[in-house]
Amino acid sequence: MDGFHSNWTLPFFKVNKDKDYYIEDFEILTTILSALKWRQNNGRIKMVTDRRGANYYNKIGICSIWDLGIDDNLDDYIDNDIDSNIFWAAGKIYALRHQKVPCVMIDTDFIVWRSLKEKLVGMDICAIHKENISNEVYPDKSYFNMKESYKFDEDWDWSVLPSNTALTYISNDEFKKYYVNSSIKFMKGVAASSDRLVNMVFAEQRLFSICAEKMNKKSYEFMNLEDLTNGKQNYFSHIWGYKDVMRKDFKKRVQFCVKCIRRIIKDFPEYEGVIANVESLNRYYKIAKSN
After folding, report:
1. If one looks up domain 3-243 in CATH, what number appears?
2. CA torsion sign, 193 to 197 to 201 to 204?
């Protein structure tokens, strides 16, 4: 199975004005582990990014982790009228548009530790897990401020549970096109808004399930949320919720980064030199090698 990462760098500058582009140390490490573990257990993988992103990966020296290379055309894929502040994850939708199915979309903070072959037998579409509907995150359609030209499909079922798309498998091209086109149409249809959560998760996660329901395609989940987070499974790691912890607690950040480096060196010793040469990982590498 071919997988892909994606990284649209433009949203970075909406919240980091006047800064040079960078990726935080812990996410560099999860990106490396994510790519290498996918290659080890499941198939090939590429990075779909823009030219700024490709230059950054080349600068820090980790381009070799993607055996299918880097597609740096994301700037050309994304329409200019997409609000990069509100739709900060739109890059993955546009990246998906340009992938052949079957394919697996993987966030750079998500690691698949084992083969998914048996889990995907006979499936058309599958996301990591379903999410509960809450008014704070998944409000009713009356919440959205849409342009007059945009109309929600009256046949959409708003009661279906949204799908977290941090890990997403799609083998049906008809569904992929409908989902991507519906998401892009929605993003372009949103009028002035400052809500960076509700709009984005609708375009990315709720529409995934709504589109599946509309097309009579069952949307499976790799694992329910409780099983994913109870510490008893050994298939997946998703550090999304732990990022803020590491930003606030440097000790935990060090522990996490050192643990990742040791795992990379243990499982992929040929990449130790890559780790050693990434400047922002220097302090953690020295600790990892000292004990």
Report:
1. 3.90.550
2. positive
Q: Are 33 and 264 in contact (CB under 8 A)?
A: yes
Q: Number of H helices and number of E strands within the chain? A: 13, 9
- What residue spans define the domains of the chain? 3-243
118 three-class SS: helix
C-beta separation of 173 from 98 below 8 A: no
Residue 269: cis peptide before it, omega within 30 degrees of 0: no
Instruction: Tell me the C-alpha to C-alpha distance, in Å, between residue 87 and each of 15, 90, 149.
Output: 13, 5, 19
| Partners of 111 in beta bridges | 237
Across the chain, which has 291 residues, the per-10-residue mean pLDDT values are: 96 90 97 98 98 98 98 96 95 98 97 93 92 95 95 96 96 97 97 91 97 94 82 86 94 97 97 96 96 71
Report the first-to-last Cα separation within the chain, whole angstroms: 37
For residue 231, the cross-strand partners are none
CA 50, 51, 54: angle at the middle one, nearest 5? 90
Q: What is the total residue count of the chain? A: 291
